[in-house]
Specification:
Helix content is about 15%, strand content about 35%. The protein contains twelve helices and 40 strands. The strands form ten sheets. It has an eight-stranded mixed sheet with strand order 33-34-36-35-37-38-39-40, sandwiched between helices. Strand 17 and strand 18 form a beta hairpin. The radius of gyration is 24 Å and the shape is globular. About 50% of the residues are buried.
Length: about 625
Amino acid sequence: MRRLHLDDLWSFAIPSSPALAPNGSQVVYVLRTADRESDRNRRALWSVATVPGATPAPLTTGWADTAPAWSPDGSRIAFLRADDGPPQVHLIPAGGGEPRRVTDLPLGSGAPRWSPDGRRIAFSAPVAVAPLTGPVVIRRLGYKADGVGLRARARIQVHVLDLADGRVRQLTEGEWDAGDPAWSPDGTLLAYASATGPDADLALTSGAHVVDAETGLTRAVGDGKGWIGGVSWFPDVSALLATGSTAVRIGHTQLLRLPLDGGEPVDLAGALDRNLMPGGPEWPGGTPQFTKDGTVVFCARDRGSTLLYRGTEAVPLPPGTSVAGLSLAGDLAAAVIVTGSSHGEISLIDLGTGEARQLTGHTRAALPDVEFIQPEQREFTISDGTVVHGWIVRDPATTGAGPLLLDAHGGPHLAWAPHLEPAHPYHQLLAAQGWTVLLLNPRASDGYGEEFYAASVGRWGIGDERDFLEPVEQLVAEGLAGPDRLAVCGYSYGGFTTCHLTTRTGRFAAAVAGGPVTNLLSMAGSSDDAPTFAALEFGGDIYAGGELLRAQSPIERVHQVTTPTLLVHAVNDDRCPVGQSEEWFTALRTLGVPTEMVLYPDESHQFLADGRPSNRVDYSRQIVRWVTGRMP
């Protein structure tokens, strides 16, 4: 066996979006692989039977096949294909065959949702509201989105496809976007989330809505004072099951019961004091769903890991695992389970007993001779008494005080977990070279309660500074790291942390800031997430002087930096615009601090997860090059 090499990154095989057949006999899922010759990601549908010894096999051969959904009778699978244009809904027999396209919308379709009788498919899809070329008139915030670009030319609305005649009807209309729809159990209504208020872009509110599938008559559900991310139905049609919050604030995503009769919403998982994880393609968590006895199953983050819950009881999965995709059929669940030795495998889980059986082995098949270094759990008591939890990635064969990399996660409300991170393979690459990699979940991290989660509000870089620096000094004192062999890196909020820490100490011999935030005031006016960022993280009226933002902006103290710094940034980043890195690079270069900047054209903020394979590989290469080249 051997350790991971840089070239191995081309071999990663990452499953997502599992869809369990209604009878529990088969799982269809998306498998992402990289094609080296074309430098493209391939996302094809794969299938595996749930009987012991079954072998996974490709179901489709497209380049961009996603969002599989079984028909109620289990005979067909609807999915999205976007090989040569915008994504369109296709159908394929459950046993395989040639897919048939069933939509041809100018701007494409969203994820398909079957009606209970299998005769219709609902989806949300963009509709042009302005010319697709020429000048763009902007009247509201939220006019752009990372990975999408300008959104003011179109609005996303609910549509229904009648499979008998192929006719597509648009059910909703307005100057707002509709989320993915969900059919009522009797097939007469569709529920969706949207921000319909005239000033919702400022208030940040959104709500649940129900539309009649025939007439298009729509009504709101709930008081509209909070925000709603996604909705489905209670089996008895008495209420909607929603992910969101009853108030607009920095805090946990809640699992809400929204009565259709106008009663007060109820947080079904509030007693856990944990953040709900509704998931997404290649993202931790899964959509809340019901078992056959009406118990809700959902995912929530706990101490870095994303756990599966049935009601308020955790399903007893093995320690150190996380759920990254979920589909139910009766009392069976299909889930992507991520561990310290795989990038995720499809497992079948008996929700009654908690027994989990792995159905695929894509990581081992792709990297048969690679042994991954397992993270070691650590806790550090900070000088004010706060306990900070995290992980150390260090080869057991490594001895003595070698180089150490402190990697700060993004968010700031994300968290490092004890499993493989496909977007951060340089952890394994450096550990294989004798490094110690320190992954901390400081204040504002997810999985430690809501008070801990909200600790960053108005305190970026202030509340968590010691959470980073004191554990580093403890590892130096323990003899695990050389005092002059320390490096720091991070992406997004982690990039902010990197820049902030280098203005506060000269302790680090090297720094890498990826997609950072360096000027909070300019960030608040240019990010696609500017309303949330400004109003919630920093309290609203940022333009009445802006003292708080300036005081916490690393750019205000850039003259104190002496650490050689590499900046890496996607040119089309709308979340943390590239100007944030450009400001830092210009300042360091002018001040005579050793610096370089690597830009990735045509990539967005999320390119570490879904950008060109060569760019994802290069990101890890650049980090390893910079930090190893600066060590004494």
